[in-house]
């Protein structure tokens, strides 16, 4: 019944902004077959969408999944805007497969929390049933050693407790303090977001003197904000405090109590100062949204100095797919990506234009880099020229000295920020420029 319809695979870029990233698309064949490709270094959920039918699939690295999608009633209204969530079938799975385990957990949850005889569950009853669910799961899954699933259970139950406000001490001491931050775990981050929503406002209301409003709207100072919330009993850890600030800054941006421009300034400061890659990624996604640089937006044009000293115009690449990266000779991580960009150029150079923009302060170091790397023959421009009033770095709101963008042939951002070569952009390029081939061996590494 889905034949001829498009199926889209999307992932979530980060779990603070919850920005969905389209990874691959296929048209379902007459026999119901389709194939989608996605590269991931860790276990995570992805979302399969056919019009407004949505299914969640947990994927592990280096696996091929065979799935079946249940048919719907023939008279179902596909044009209704409401999402219709469905459970998919996993071909060749057993009871220990991650998706099957999550379905089993949902059954245990429904047995306890689905209203029976319209009975209302008050807070004490919810607490009791959450504790009962934990006991059931501890016994039921005692032989399961899948780390993702065990955390799935723990933080799904934690979210139940958070939804009925079981108490700050109970929630944060029990599920956050002295435990690792799980940036890539969907259920952990769902709980984290629920637990710390409005947290800085609540903390500020108990303080005398300096106000949160003044720190953000008037002074727009990240260091001052971080020092201010250090006084909270739960935010002594630098990494936890920084993540809580990111979460609350994201919420502040949409609040009428705070100036969006000031929130963006503080986020940019955090992006520059943080030492954690995960926080830099979240801040990048936030800034992309704040500056209208999210996927689907029109890619900004720019001018830059070329290798021969003339001015190159990005607009000259109109009608071409473009992989754009910013680098610096002072940034060793960005330099490690350059040979990988060269390899991608050799593979996709007839389909994609590769453009690198050097963010060095010195024109001399840029020229020296070109001389010492004569095999790098793609377009490598220098960001600054005295004749350019607004640089590429300005137009793309790049903070720091490394960034990646993927632009389609219509001039819109296909990925923003895009994956670096070492993080899997090749899989994205393969999905666009190479035809899918059937692979029916499921569950293989």
Structure description:
This protein has 445 residues and is an alpha+beta fold. The chain folds into 4 domains: 85 residues, no CATH class; 99 residues, no CATH class; 92 residues; 131 residues, 3-Layer(aba) Sandwich (Glutaredoxin). It is built from 15 helices and 14 strands. The strands form 4 sheets. Strands 2-1-3-4-6 form a 5-stranded mixed β-sheet. The protein has a 5-stranded mixed β-sheet with strand order 12-11-10-13-14, covered by helices on one side. Helix 3 packs parallel to helix 5, helix 9 packs parallel to helix 11 and helix 10 packs antiparallel against helix 11. It is globular and about 75 Å long. The mean pLDDT is 91.
Give the fraction of residues assigned to helices. Answer: 25-40%
CATH second-level architecture of the largest domain: 3-Layer(aba) Sandwich
Structural class: alpha+beta
Major β-sheet strand ordering: 2-1-3-4-6
> In CATH, what is the homologous superfamily of the largest domain?
Glutaredoxin
CATH fold label of the largest domain: Glutaredoxin
The figure for the number of domains is 4
End-to-end Cα distance: 31 Å
* Global shape: globular
Uncertain parts: none
Level-1 CATH class name of the largest domain = Alpha Beta
DSSP, total strands: 14
Question: What is the overall pLDDT average?
Answer: 91
Radius of gyration (CA) equals 25 Å
Query: What is the element string, with H for helices and E for strands?
Result: EEEEEEEHHHHHHHHHHHEEEHEHEHEEH
* Biggest sheet overview: 5 strands, mixed
Beta-strand percent range: 15-25%
